[in-house]
Specification:
This protein has helices at about 130-140, 195-210, 220-235, 285-290, 320-335, 345-350, 385-395, 415-430, 435, 450-455, 480-495, 510-525, 570-575, 590-604; strands at about 5, 40-45, 50-55, 60-65, 65-70, 70, 75, 115-120, 150, 155-160, 175-180, 180-185, 190-195, 215-220, 245-250, 275-280, 300-305, 370-375, 445, 505-510, 530-535, 560-565, 580-585. The chain has 3 domains: about 5-75, Roll (SH3 type barrels), CATH 2.30.30; about 115-350, Rossmann fold (3-Layer(aba) Sandwich); about 370-604, Rossmann fold (3-Layer(aba) Sandwich). The longest helix is centred in the C-terminal third of the chain and has 16 residues, at about 480-495. By secondary structure, it is α/β, with parallel strands linked by helices. It comes from Symbiodinium pilosum (Dinoflagellate).
Length: about 600
């Protein structure tokens, strides 16, 4: 069992004293530990404790005394401070799909000697040996590790060494497998999961012969498969009832909207205790894909844990907060307790969000005259020319920038990387004139003008700060202050347009999509419904304030257009912002993009 402590002293002194080291003569740390703070025990020596701060304020780590003058300063507690306060009612309740209880097996600890019987599904293109090594590494220091009885279920599709591009796995072969094949390349907007049906049939047979399990852990495609199993079980699939009680999902994504599996996305938030864990520095998928997946788990059942170990299950160490949060979850699962998510920031920022949403049907009749307000990119192409120069130099040096995949042999890379960036550069450099040229009698084209000062705003992180090769800095706006900055710009633009009415549609280009999003929200706040919001290659990592609550755009139609060869993650922040129609589509060139926006703006 993990050891947790709660600070009970120091109420009259602003908390309790913390020192750097064990000795009472070691330097005091400048900040005190707040009363009510929850600590994880790292080391104990007599009446002194070295801790890791799990909840509350104060130094993240240090030494404290158990007692002073016979009075307790800290006391043992059973978990991370018990249950957080009851969560606030979800806003927009009518947009929450009806969620069914998960069909979990009765009882617990189904393994030998009352151990928790655990199922592991690995990542793509590895062997059972690799999966076992990952389990050993992840749970090595976990207090309950001896209570976990693992079974590894390997994928039914055999692939050669290097299917996933990692030839260093040769010593751990030769039996490398996958649960499905990603075609035509990973992160494609219409990515197909070939072989999924065969895997599902094999899994049902396996569960029938070996179930039930307490928990199921999946990494990457193993987790993606398990989420679909949980969805099918909830929908009543008779072969998947009573399969497992809880889920642990590492680097797990949902299928893209445009993929063949898009129609099989989870129908309502799942009511199964689940850890969703990933690293934003993951090199295999844009981390927005990992951010989206927890929204398909009911907020009362999900524990979101962001770690820092890249594209692999985390190595859980006692001096990490993530260790104690995992331990708390597993403690609750072993005891059979009702699990209540912590109030950690990883949970708090998405506490009021879910997917999918029940959407209203847009039945408004288009007026005879429409206006399209074009919001260009305020910083133009930004650093894209630098990125292009690097790619062109690599190509000139003879480096192959793309590699076509061969099904069940090796994964492919996105095609046309240089052409794709050139198209994105065109989008970010475009003005309202590309729409003005296609204007028709029933649709006027207007635009916003930026001042020189506004064009100097640095919206994105630097190239050096981009956490993953799957992303560009154009994809990321993470400074929370930028939400208010965009709202201030939006108010100014709307004040300059005195005749704003509900006949106004908006289109934002590149970074301008973020500004257009702010304009749409400002219109809704003023009681005006935009005729539609088109976002072209928009940034996808936004300040959390933008999506703190769902349906900020009410039932305004939102349409995302991305270039065909992009590997964008899902635009879930825009998706949760509307209860109205929401669509995603692709374009091959500027002309097709303009045509799709103009056709939509005329008919919306």
């Amino acid at each position: 069992m993990a050891s947790y402590w709660e600070v009970v002293g120091g109420l009259d002194k602003g908390g309790i004293l913390v020192r750097e080291r064990l000795s009472l003569k070691s330097p005091e740390l400048p900040q005190r530990l707040s009363t009510g703070a929850i600590l994880g025990e790292l080391e104990r020596s007599g009446e002194r404790l070295r801790y890791c701060l799990l909840k509350g304020t104060g130094p993240c780590e240090g030494w404290v005394s158990l007692k002073v003058a016979g009075k307790d300063l800290i006391q043992p507690t059973s978990a991370l401070g018990g249950k957080p306060l009851d969560p606030e009612p979800l806003p927009n309740q009518d947009a929450v799909p009806t969620s069914k209880p998960f069909p979990a097996p009765k009882g617990r600890c189904f393994g030998k000697d009352k151990k928790m019987k655990m199922l592991c599904l690995h990542g793509g293109g590895v062997s059972k040996t690799v999966a076992q090594m990952q389990l050993n590494s992840t749970f090595k220091e976990m207090p309950c590790k001896k209570q976990l009885e693992w079974t590894i279920w390997t994928g039914p599709h055999t692939v050669p060494l290097g299917w996933n591009g990692d030839f260093s796995l040769k010593p751990f072969g030769p039996n490398f497998t996958v649960y499905f094949e990603r075609l035509p390349f990973a992160n494609c907007q219409w990515e197909t999961w070939d072989g999924f049906d065969k895997t599902l049939a094999e899994f049902k047979k396996f569960i029938r012969e070996n179930g039930p399990f307490d928990g199921a852990m999946g990494f990457d495609m193993g987790g993606e498969f398990l989420v679909h199993v949980a969805g099918l079980a909830t929908e009543g699939d008779p072969d998947l009832q009573d399969a497992f009680r809880f889920l642990i999902l590492f680097t797990t994504t949902a299928p893209k909207h445009l993929s063949p599996m898009g129609k099989d996305r989870i129908k309502a938030p799942l009511q199964i205790p689940t850890i969703c864990s990933w690293a934003n520095s993951d090199e295999n998928h844009p981390f927005m894909e990992y951010e989206e997946l927890p929204l398909f788990i009911h907020r009362d059942f999900r524990e979101v844990i962001v770690h820092a170990d890249g594209h692999k299950p985390p190595v859980l160490k006692k001096d990490q907060t993530v260790f104690w949060r995992f331990s708390r979850f597993l403690d609750a699962m072993e005891k059979g307790d009702t699990f209540t998510p912590t109030d950690h920031e990883d949970n708090a920022v998405r506490a009021k969000l879910w997917l999918p949403l029940q959407r209203s049907t847009d039945v408004s009749v288009p007026p005879s005259k429409r206006r399209l307000l074009v919001v260009p990119d305020p910083e133009g192409p930004g650093d894209l020319p630098k990125v292009l120069d690097v790619l062109r130099a690599r190509q000139a040096a003879g480096e192959a920038l793309e590699s076509p995949g061969e099904p069940w042999v090796r994964g492919g890379t996105p095609p046309n990387p240089i052409q794709r960036l050139e198209l994105l550069l065109q989008v970010c450099s475009a003005s309202h004139e590309i729409f003005q040229k296609k204007a028709v009698a029933e649709l006027d084209v207007d635009h916003v003008d930026y001042t020189e000062e506004q064009r100097k705003i640095n919206w994105h992180c630097s190239l050096a700060e981009v956490p993953s090769r799957q992303l560009l800095n154009k994809d990321i706006i993470e400074d929370e202050r930028h939400d208010q900055l965009a709202q201030d710009l939006a108010k100014g633009f709307l004040e300059a347009k005195k005749d704003v009415a509900e006949s106004l549609a908006l289109v934002g280009l590149g970074t301008g999509a973020f500004v257009a999003f702010a304009i749409a929200r400002e219109m809704v706040a003023k009681g005006l419904k935009p005729a539609g919001l088109w976002l072209i290659d928009p940034p996808l990592r936004l300040p959390w304030a933008c999506s703190a609550e769902p349906c900020s755009l009410k039932d305004c139609p939102v349409h995302i257009l991305v270039d065909r060869d992009s590997t964008y993650g899902p635009p879930w922040r825009y998706e949760v912002s509307t209860c109205g129609p929401f669509t995603i589509n692709t374009f091959v060139d500027i002309d097709e993009m303009v045509a799709k926006v103009m056709d939509g703006a005329r008919s919306t």
